[in-house]
Backbone:
């Protein structure tokens, strides 16, 4: 048994991968994931690729924004899914044009706003809620911060489920419209994908500006030693609050995109498990690296959706097998690359 | 990067590119099977229903293929997991339509997943045909959306009528916070109140709850004539029945199908005796239905949710009948028209058809009563049918 443990350790963190120069490993990881994506695209054709790329864009916005908090600032938040849900539900409530009074289920008012009128509200409301909870959360650090962010995710889910007069509870909200510029609605999948990628590019740009600025360097310093940076006169709580709110606003944007893309949301899309998957994506790609979050999201989508094509299992077991294989692959990756594909820092 | 590293990277990338292309190079032939998509919850909250539905459909397809197929062609099911979630249903839908090129999809087992994928199906002219989704909103989902499962709204109306007919005048309800359970509670209460009844207490619980003593105590303090349970999972349904009896309540309990499922009755034990439920059930006199259950038990070693099992099974045979007419699995419009025209007799009933909203007509709910523990067995599923549910 001990020999086995030694062998695993030898293969993993202290093995050949560890001895390879970091830049080489990162390049290999990048090329493998991108090559994998290209291969998948060639294999499956444009239609399904568009769907997967749209999912990637939404998850990548979430991962990049969460990396600001978890990777760059060192605050392990598992509550990001709450802000994602706030963005999605705000879009759904403001923009849905369903005539619920004709149905037998819960009826809610439908203001029927256009997508672009609702979008700023989605982002602002996520930021506002983040500001409120952030003022309280700033009092906590390390393990306690994880617990309170966990609590936030639970509270947010409970709101989505139980505030039926606003969210329709378990019935969900449907007929959420796509973005439209005047009479030109982005109804096509390609148009929506381009829009989602533009949003992702904007989020990446903003994150890049943040992490390469003096503000970003302070965040990194907070992660390394919060007390030391405070000694130099930096108001640590303000920096943490600012990045927390910015990150939540980006998650709100991702939520609005999800609601519009799926046209239907219910509380099941915002359960705690989704938060855990999000953390897994960030760690899989690598902490404190924007490129890592993009790669992590891409690898995750390819892993999860790629396994729809497992050819050797009875159909009723494919679903379960996908989850098992995904879990095993994540464990193996953490064994060999605990800092993620292109990570610079470990939790 | 060293030369060796580049060679490694190049090998990996070329391998990744070529492997799928090689896999994709399959030859077609003139006797290609009819390809039908299946979207069910193989994982997630609806796993029980989804797995039963997949297995029932597989069994039906094996029977049809063993008998020579449809017009000499076999049926091939392409199964995707929709995980009881709108987002995953959309991914599964796009995989089935874009990659596999199917135009007819059987599923889904969860209403949320159905409502997520239905707008896409409506836009693309793809038929979605569910045997299990019961949310009332699906009735308005579009021209290509059909189901053999009965709308929850009817279930609620029938339950409200039954309560009133049984002399219940005050009611307490406890329901799981899911679209199905909440839909049943809502329509039941609406009908009960329309008849003149009064709801004296309402409690809801999250799907992961395990202890219901506090909400039940609160409900019992209101001294209702009866308790109504609407659950999504058999575990919670069975546990509520058990715990309410442990609290000393000996009044009547009413429910929908979940609290009388096999697992729920195992959990509740004798506490469930006398529980009345309004359900869709396979008629004991329906030989076809009983054969299906018997064959399913022989093949898979268990039976649960028998009506839904039969519903999923019938969907495949209805599909086969329509494919016999259209002889083209890409002709979704022809298939849709066939569904509007068809009258079917199968495992779940005789002479049922579909109305202009794709809703099944000609099937009714029944009232059942759970038997004492000593009388429950595999053949009676633990309950006896009292008669048709009072629908008006």
Residues:
């Amino acid at each position: 048994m001990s020999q086995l443990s030694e062998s695993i350790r030898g293969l993993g963190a202290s093995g050949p991968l560890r001895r390879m120069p970091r830049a080489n490993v990162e390049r290999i990881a990048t090329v493998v994931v991108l090559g994998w994506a290209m291969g998948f695209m060639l294999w499956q054709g444009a239609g399904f690729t568009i769907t997967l790329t749209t999912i990637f864009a939404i998850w990548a916005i979430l991962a990049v924004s969460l990396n600001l908090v978890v990777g760059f600032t060192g605050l392990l938040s598992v509550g990001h899914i709450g802000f994602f849900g706030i963005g999605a539900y705000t879009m759904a409530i403001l923009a849905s044009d369903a005539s619920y009074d004709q149905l037998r289920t819960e009826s809610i008012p439908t203001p029927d706003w256009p997508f672009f009128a609702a979008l700023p509200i989605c982002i602002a409301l996520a930021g506002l809620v983040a500001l409120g909870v952030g003022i309280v959360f700033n009092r906590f650090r390390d393990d306690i911060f994880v617990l309170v962010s966990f609590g936030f995710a639970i509270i947010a889910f409970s709101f989505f489920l139980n505030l039926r007069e606003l969210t329709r509870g378990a019935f969900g909200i449907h007929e959420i419209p796509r973005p439209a510029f005047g009479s030109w609605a982005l109804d096509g999948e390609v148009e929506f994908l381009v829009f989602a990628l533009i949003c992702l590019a904007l989020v990446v740009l903003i994150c890049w500006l943040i992490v390469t600025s003096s503000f970003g360097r302070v965040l990194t310093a907070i992660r390394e030693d919060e007390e030391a940076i405070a000694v130099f006169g930096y108001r640590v709580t303000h920096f943490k609050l600012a990045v927390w709110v910015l990150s939540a606003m980006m998650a709100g944007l991702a939520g609005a995109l999800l609601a519009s893309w799926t046209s239907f949301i219910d509380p099941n899309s915002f359960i705690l498990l989704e938060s855990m998957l999000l953390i897994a994506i960030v760690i899989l790609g690598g902490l404190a690296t924007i490129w890592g979050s993009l790669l992590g999201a891409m690898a995750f989508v390819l892993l999860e959706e790629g396994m729809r094509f497992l050819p050797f299992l009875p159909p009723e077991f494919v679903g379960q097998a996908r989850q098992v294989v995904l879990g095993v692959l994540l464990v193996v990756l953490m064994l060999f690359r605990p800092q993620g594909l292109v990570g610079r820092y470990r939790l | 990067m060293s030369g060796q590293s580049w060679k490694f990277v190049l090998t990996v990338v070329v391998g990744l590119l070529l492997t799928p292309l090689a896999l994709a190079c399959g030859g077609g032939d003139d006797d290609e099977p009819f390809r039908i998509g299946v979207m069910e919850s193989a994982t997630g909250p609806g796993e029980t229903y989804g797995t039963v539905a997949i297995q029932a459909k597989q069994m039906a397809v094996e029977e049809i293929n063993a008998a020579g197929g449809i017009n000499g062609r076999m049926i091939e099911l392409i199964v995707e997991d929709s995980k009881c979630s709108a987002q995953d249903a959309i991914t599964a839908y796009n995989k089935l339509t874009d990659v596999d090129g199917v135009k007819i999809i059987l599923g889904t087992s969860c209403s949320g997943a159905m409502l997520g994928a239905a707008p896409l199906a409506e836009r693309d002219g793809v038929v979605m045909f569910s045997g299990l989704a019961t949310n009332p909103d699906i009735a308005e989902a579009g021209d290509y959306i059909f189901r053999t499962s009965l709308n929850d709204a009817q279930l609620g109306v029938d339950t409200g009528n039954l309560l009133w007919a049984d002399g219940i005048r005050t009611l307490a309800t406890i329901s799981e916070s899911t679209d199905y359970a909440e839909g049943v509670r809502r329509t039941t209460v609406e009908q009960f109140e329309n008849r003149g009844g009064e709801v004296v207490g309402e409690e809801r619980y999250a799907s992961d709850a395990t202890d219901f003593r506090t909400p039940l105590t609160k409900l019992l303090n209101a001294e209702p004539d009866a308790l109504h349970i609407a659950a999504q999972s058999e575990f919670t349904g069975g546990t509520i029945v058990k715990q309410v009896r442990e609290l000393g309540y000996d009044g009547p309990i009413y429910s929908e199908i979940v609290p009388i499922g096999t697992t729920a009755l195992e959990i509740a034990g004798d506490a469930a005796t006398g529980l009345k439920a309004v359900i869709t059930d396979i008629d004991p006199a329906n030989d076809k239905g009983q054969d299906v259950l018997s064959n399913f038990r022989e093949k898979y070693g268990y039976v649960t949710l028998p009506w839904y099992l039969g519903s999923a099974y019938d969907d495949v045979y209805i599909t086969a009948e329509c494919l016999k007419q259209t002889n083209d699995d890409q002709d979704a419009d022809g298939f849709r028209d066939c569904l509007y025209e068809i009258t079917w007799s199968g495992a779940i009933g005789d002479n049922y058809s579909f109305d202009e909203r794709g809703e099944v007509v000609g099937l009714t709910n029944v009232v059942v009563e759970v038997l004492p523990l000593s009388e429950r067995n595999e053949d009676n599923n633990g309950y006896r049918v009292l008669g048709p549910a009072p629908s008006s």
The first strand of chain A starts at residue 173 and ends at 174. The CA atoms of residues 284 and 330 of chain A lie 8 Å apart.
